[in-house]
Design brief:
By secondary structure, the chain is mainly β. Helices cover 13% and strands 54% of the residues. The protein has a single domain (7-127), classed as Nucleoside Triphosphate Pyrophosphohydrolase (Alpha-Beta Complex).
Length: 140
């Protein structure tokens, strides 16, 4: 699948603790902008969204998550690094068992290596930090 030419189904997990949200950090080279996004990723053909979310957390940060409940769906049309993209996003409220809890994680995905960390939700709501997709605010 070419994620810049097709509608891509993805799933994101909203993990919160002490008014903080677990997010990965990204950077748009064209906009020269740091942004954050909840962890998750693409849903493969014939894969249930819950299974995709568990797989993504396991692959990216080696964590086995608990899925608490389905929150909703949004459509996300955006430009990243100068390319158009279109996603259907499924959101789940999740929790990370204590034995997997860390202040910061190393994320390994298709884009290489980055960091995931817990950031105060108010920093996103006050627009001090950018959180994508915008629709995620409906579920916080």
């Amino acid at each position: 699948m070419n994620k810049y030419k097709e509608i891509r189904p993805i799933v994101l997990g909203l993990a919160t603790k002490d008014n903080k949200l677990l997010v990965s950090e990204g950077y748009d080279n064209v906009k020269k902008q740091t942004f954050y996004r909840c962890l998750g990723g693409g849903i493969e053909f014939l894969e249930k969204s819950e299974d995709a979310l568990k797989r993504e957390f396991s692959e990216e940060i080696s964590v086995n998550i608990n899925i608490n409940n389905f929150l909703g769906v949004s459509e996300n049309i955006f430009i990243h690094n100068g390319k158009n993209a279109h996603e259907l996003v499924l959101y789940y409220n999740i929790s990370i068992p204590d034995e997997y809890y860390k202040n910061e994680y190393t994320v390994i995905d298709d884009h290489g290596e980055s960091k995931a960390k817990w950031i105060d939700i108010d920093e996103f709501k006050n627009r001090k930090k950018i959180l994508y997709p915008e629709e995620v605010f409906k579920f916080l």
